[in-house]
């Protein structure tokens, strides 16, 4: 019988996945409807805050009402530049005033494992990435997606769930689908 594992890595984050009799057999997923997004390519890490503000401004100016947590995907990371995509679900399935945001009616990504970062994001995020790589390697898998981050507010604080798609080495899988209207 599968059971949920939470591996305590440090006081800063937890790693989770479902384990069956033969290793990781059950995975997590991302499933959202009415997703609006904007991708920023080749930005300096110091400009991420400005990009988040612009994304929220575009979302609000389009008259959209958020229906979930902010999600972002790090698509490319190097020391000087990032490619990052911000995503937010809306209560509206289509809004005529949306011009600078990409709309997806449904976003589903499966075969994922995750780490929860609770404190001091700047310090603990690198350790979280390393832990996800270690979990994949220890289970004979590799990471085949960007790092997805979901910011979950809790009162005046928040935590971040970092997820990646994993696949067995030498195995091809269909890890999700996107439907755009």
Overall description:
The radius of gyration is 17 Å and the shape is globular. It is 18% helix and 51% strand. The protein has a 6-stranded antiparallel barrel with strand order 4-6-5-9-10-7. Mean pLDDT is 80; it is low at 1-25. With 181 residues, the protein is an alpha+beta fold. A hairpin with a 4-residue loop joins strand 5 (71-77) and strand 6. The protein is built from 2 helices and 11 strands, in the order E-E-E-E-H-E-E-E-H-E-E-E-E.
State the gist of this model:
This protein has about 180 residues and is α+β, with helices and mostly antiparallel strands. It is built from two helices and eleven strands; from the N terminus they run ββββαβββαββββ.
Low-confidence stretches: 1-25
Helix proportion: 10-25%
CA gyration radius, whole angstroms: 17 Å
Overall SS class = alpha+beta
Number of β-strand runs: 11
Biggest β-sheet: strands ordered side by side in the sheet: 4-6-5-9-10-7
Shape: globular
- The DSSP helix count reads 2
**What string, H for helix and E for strand, traces the elements in order?**
EEEEHEEEHEEEE
Range of strand content: over 45%
Please tell me the overall pLDDT.
80
- Main sheet makeup: 6 strands, antiparallel, barrel
Task: Give the topology.
Layout: E1 3-8, E2 13-20, E3 23-26, E4 28-43, H1 48-61, E5 71-77, E6 82-89, E7 102-117, H2 121-138, E8 141-143, E9 147-154, E10 157-168, E11 176-179
Antiparallel strand pairs: 1-2, 2-3, 2-7, 4-6, 4-7, 5-6, 5-9, 7-10, 7-11, 8-10, 9-10
């Amino acid at each position: 019988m599968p059971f949920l594992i939470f591996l305590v890595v440090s006081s800063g984050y937890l790693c989770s996945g479902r384990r069956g009799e033969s290793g990781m057999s059950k995975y997590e997923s991302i499933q959202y409807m009415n997703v609006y997004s904007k991708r920023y390519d080749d930005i300096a890490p110091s400009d991420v805050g400005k990009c988040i503000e612009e994304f929220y401004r575009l979302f609000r100016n389009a008259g959209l009402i958020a229906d979930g947590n902010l999600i972002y995907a790090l698509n490319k990371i190097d020391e000087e530049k990032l490619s990052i995509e911000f995503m937010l679900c809306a209560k509206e399935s289509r809004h005529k005033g949306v011009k600078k945001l990409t709309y997806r009616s449904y976003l589903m990504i499966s075969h994922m494992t995750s780490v929860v970062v609770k404190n001091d994001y700047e310090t603990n995020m690198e350790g979280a990435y390393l832990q996800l790589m270690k979990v994949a390697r220890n289970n004979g898998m590799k990471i085949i997606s960007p790092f997805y981050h979901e910011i979950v507010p809790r009162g005046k604080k928040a935590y971040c769930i970092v997820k990646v798609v994993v696949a067995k080495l030498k195995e091809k899988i269909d890890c999700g689908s996107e439907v755009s209207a």
